[in-house]
Structure formats: C-alpha cells, structure tokens
Amino acid sequence: MKRILFVATVASHIKAFHLPFINLLEEKGYEVEVACYPDTPLNGLHYVWAVPFSRSPYSKGNMAAFKTIKKLLQERCYDLIHVHTPVAAFLVRLAARNMNVPVLYTVHGFHFYKGAPLKNHLIYGTMERLAARWTAGLIAINREDLEAARRLGFIEGRNLFFVRGVGVDLDYYGPDNTDNTRDNKIDIGFEICPGSPIVLCVGEFTPNKNQALLIDAWKYVIAEVPRAKLLFAGQGECEGQLKERVSGNGLSGSVHFLGYRTDIPKLLSLANVVTQVSKREGLPRSIMEAMAAGKPTVATSVRGNCDLVRDGVNGFLVPLGDPKSLAKALIRLLVDKDLAQRMGMAGREMIQEYSLDRILQEMWDIYQRYL
C-alpha cells in the first residue's frame, strides 16, 4: 500500500482544512499519515506524528523539528508528501531534498505578498526561492500567489497548479441549512430583538485578522443603524485587547463575542452581512461560507479577499485601514435589504466553482500525476 504524508505547522490547520482530502486518499486505498505540532486532537486519523514545528522562522525549536521530520522521512518511506504552511513546508522540503519522494506544496498565502514588510520578502522570499528546487509541484489558491509562483520559476500545467482553495460544502452552508434559524433556538448568550440587523465576523483573533479595524468602524455604524449588532465568532491571542477596545469605545451593548463555534451555518442564518477585514489572506473560508449561504460580504481589498468578492456585485471591497469606508459599506447593506439580497444571490451563484466536490476532483487529478 502506498503511503502519503500530510504536513502542516499545527494540527489545527490539518483539522480545519485538510480532512476531506485525507479521507479522499484513504478511500482511494492509500495510507495517509500526518506530521504537525499537536495543538489540538486529530481524532480518527491512523498515524499522527508529533513534530515541534514553530510558526516563527526565528524559533530555535525548528532545529529539533527538522531533525524529527528528517528521521521520520527516513524511517517511513513515503510515496508522496503534501506540505502546507511556510515554515513546516520549508523544513520538510529541506529534509526530503535528497530523497526520491515527490513533495507537493499548497501555498495558503505567500508571506512576501504585495505590501508586506521588507523583512518578509527577505526571509520568506529567500526561503521559497531556495525550496523551489526541491518542490515537485506547487498549488496556488489565489491569483497573486499564482503570479508569484511563476516568478519563482514554476510553470503552469507542468509543476504549477491553480486550485480554488480547499473547497466549501455548498449543501452544509447553503440556504436550506441556514434559513429561518431566527425562529428557532440558538444559544449565543443573549436575545436578538426582532428586526435587529446583524453583522457577523468569523475568524481567529490575531493581528493579521485585524478585527480592531471593524471595532473602530462600528461606532459609525451604530450612529446610523442604532439597533445593529456585531457578532464575533472565534478565539485567539488578541481577544482580551479587542474586548477592551469595545468597552473603551462604549460599544459593549452592540458588540458580542461568541467564542469558538461549531454552528457556523446557524450563525450565518442570523446575519444580514458577513465581514472579513484581514490584512492578508490566502483564500478566506469565512467569505466562501458566507457566499454559499447567500450572504453579502464586506471585505478589505487584499489578496484572497479580492479573489472572492467582486466589488459592487456580491459585496463591497474597502481599503485597508479605513474604518469610515468600512462603516459606509456595512451601513449601505444593512439599510438596503434589496441590495443585500441581490448581492447574496450573486455570491451564491459565484461560489459554485469553489464547491468541495469540484476541488476534491481537481486535487485527485493532481495527486495522480505524482502517485
């Protein structure tokens, strides 16, 4: 039986994005193993190897991770390795460079993106240029990264592939599963008054996700739409700072932190608008889910977001760092329900080519090239 290894820096990345692809390969008769830092349990997988990867390229712990992964590759003899996340992907390609095993690399957003700090270009750009020679195939999930991969020397159709993200289950997030939840019970810790407009933001609380921009915009929103509510679904390192920002701006009555949620379709049913205000993205799943649910989106005009949101068609794109523009777009959709409905329907139409079934087939075609 052929053996395949999936690698990401942390287990939560595997759990969030890659289980359908692991299941696909196992259904096709392959033995699939995973190597990652175990920040969350990965129940149901046959082999999960703990490797002390760090997200930071400066971490001394990555030396131990390199030794661990190299030993694993020597002992387990894989037929294909599929790597994700920049640090783990670099270390695995370095360890496998003299082994006769193809390595596929899915880029979930190059860290040397347009507008990135110079140090990102120096560190991550150098890492990717070095590792390009050890990469059998590279998969880009947005147009900007596709162009960057071409500049690294990858050739589309030969060793460079464009796949629209990790896919979204259109039935699970579709309107049939997200309609009428306001009439049913959903535990969000408070009652929503009938007719209250809802803005939903789903994502980890990190500096990159940039929820502070949304909080700064919210005071302008409630000045025009006093009954509006902002719901945050997620958790993370910046949560405490964001809560202080909310209370410091006197917004506690209209902004609610729901914590980590497993009922995103139900939350989408509550929302009139979904927003994503990151500084950078690969291809944001939260926007894909919103589109599948038929919800309009307001997003910052950055890589990844721009691949999904067509300004004025299925939502609005706003400049990064401009809370007034963000507020204006949110207000427009909260006030104009017909516009919001039209944009939501347009998004539902546009997301069809990002369906999980389609992406699974595209990835299977790529895997077959190397197996």
Structural domains: how many: 2
State the helical fraction: 40-55%
Sheet bearing the most strands, described? 7 strands, parallel
- What is the annotated CATH architecture of the largest domain? 3-Layer(aba) Sandwich
If strands are numbered along the chain, what order do they take across the biggest sheet?
3-2-1-4-5-6-7
Gyration radius (Cα, Å) is: 21 Å
Unreliable residue stretches: none
**Number of helical elements:** 16
Q: Which percent range describes the beta-strand content?
A: 15-25%
- Along the chain, the helix and strand elements come as EHHEEHEHEHEHEHHEHEHEHEHEHEHHH
Say which CATH homologous superfamily of the largest domain is assigned: Glycogen Phosphorylase B
Helices and strands: which structural class?
Answer: alpha/beta
Number of beta strands: 13
Mean pLDDT: 94
How far apart lie the N and C ends? 12 Å
Task: Describe the fold and architecture.
The chain has 371 residues and is α/β, with parallel strands linked by helices. The chain has two domains: 3-167 and 355-370, Glycogen Phosphorylase B (Rossmann fold, 3-Layer(aba) Sandwich); 170-354, 3-Layer(aba) Sandwich (Rossmann fold), CATH 3.40.50.2000. It has 16 helices and 13 strands. The protein has helices spanning 11-17, 19-27, 61-76, 86-95, 118-131, 143-151, 170-173, 175-178, 211-224, 239-248, 264-270, 285-292, 305-308, 323-335, 337-350, 356-370; strands spanning 3-10, 31-37, 47-50, 80-84, 103-107, 137-140, 160-162, 198-202, 229-233, 255-257, 273-276, 297-300, 315-318. The strands form two sheets. The chain has a seven-stranded parallel beta sheet. It has a six-stranded parallel beta sheet with strand order 10-9-8-11-12-13, sandwiched between helices. Strand 11, helix 12 (285-292) and strand 12 form a beta-alpha-beta unit. It is globular.
